Give the backbone structure.
Amino acid sequence: MKPPAETPSRKILGLIGAQKEYFLKGETRELDFRKSQLKRLKLAIEARENIILEALQKDLGKSAFEGYASETGIILEEIKHALKWLPRWMAERAVPVPLSQFPAYASITPEPFGNVLIIAPYNYPFHLAIAPLVAAIAAGNTAIIKPSELVPHTSLVIRDLIGQTFPENYIAVVEGGRPTNTALLKQRFDMIFFTGGTAVGKIVMQAAAKYLTPVVLELGGKSPCIVDGSVNLKTAARRIAWGRFWNAGQTCVAPDYLLVERSVKDRLLPEIKASIEQFYGSDPAQSKDYGRIVNQRHFDRLKKYLKNGKVFTGGQISVKERYIAPTVLTDVKSDSPVMQEEIFGPILPVMEYGTEQEAIDFINSRPRPLALYLFTANRKFEREVLKRTTFGGGCVNDTMVHLSVPDLPFGGVGDSGMGAYHGRMGFEAFSYKRSVLRKSRWIDIPLRYPPFNGPKFQLLKKFMG
Ligand code: NAD
């Protein structure tokens, strides 16, 4: 008789069991082990660089330059950074001991959670599956990765890369879509790291609540980009167009909409149009450097937004290729879908403001964004915006590049997520802080032991008050 076919849930249970068992052996906690696994990962990525870039090209029409800059190269950098600083990140830190506990030694060590689950989205499918893994390894965990099903070529490359580099009881990949993810989320993990949309983030947090599993949620939202009249508009336009149309707009931290000072709009928009032409030529459909929309569902969703305003530039589409030209929309209402939902595509709606107060109020009337970008030379306005708005991270006078500073924590706040990673913060996101007080075996002050009497109480007050 043939043995019964393995169901996804049974496979998942087997993997989790094996990883938990392996974690208990303690090997993953050693500095040398963590370093050697990071080096293995680095070599594995370097050896498959072309395969990874080809998969990204097939799934998202990503150019090799974009693929290297935002998917593989950035991970190699992250690994290099972790290898350099890991001993310091792992170091035990002594803290002062109060007199009442003297003599003793108190210290904090970052400890791994154990067996973690990493769920990745489709837009930077390699980067967003592997960057959390770098942090998970650095922190001494075992891990299961669930890549996005919307990018089958990249998902397969990730599965092979991990399968050929690590044993399953240490790091494993489980491929699949919503049912697989649902099956994974029913299990008990020691920590869940999720990157994706706000709606699914809520599902993840609800599932995690069952076992009180800690979560990091890297979500999305509408990131505003404010421009006032005090800056060089040519440079601002170039940086905005770069951020909005990189990866065909499918970037969580892309400037989602423009909030431009009314008197500046007519000078800024032609500069953005000129930048688009400079980057992608007069017909971006012909450019090797311009991406495509991941699937038909997202293409149809984006196509509808084109009707939410007047097309200033762009607007062309090709259903067959899932191509949407870099588009700037004016005359947009703030309650229209393009201004209510995260766009996640190559469309830039333009809103105007009169006073600085109006710009700040507009941002504060909406969910807290993942990123905020401000183009200004006016230090007072800069201070006001930073002091009076709440967002995950951002740039003054640029877009998106805050991500390339390894020690800047990357994460959202409110609807755009909780927790952060990259560099040291990634290591910390995958660790908890363990406190240990080591007491002297020789001296045992009897103050705390009953029977309690008046002099003991007085002494206690002296120690603690
Ligand atoms: P998504 O939320 O649809 O999917 C993310 C993951 O969740 C995928 O692996 C998918 O298989 C799984 N999933 C989808 N629906 C599910 C369900 N109902 N139940 C259980 N699992 C489910 O996100 P996406 O469309 O792949 O990516 C786009 C979103 O991700 C955008 O909102 C974007 O802003 C956000 N994002 C955030 C960051 C960040 O770092 N903050 C980075 C990239 C993308």
Q: What stands out?
A: The chain has two domains: 8-219+418-433, 224-411. The pocket of nicotinamide-adenine-dinucleotide is lined by residues 119-123, 128, 146, 148-149, 177-178, 181-182, 195-197, 200, 203, 218-220, 252, 342, 344, 370, 412, 417 (CB under 6 Å). The radius of gyration is 26 Å.
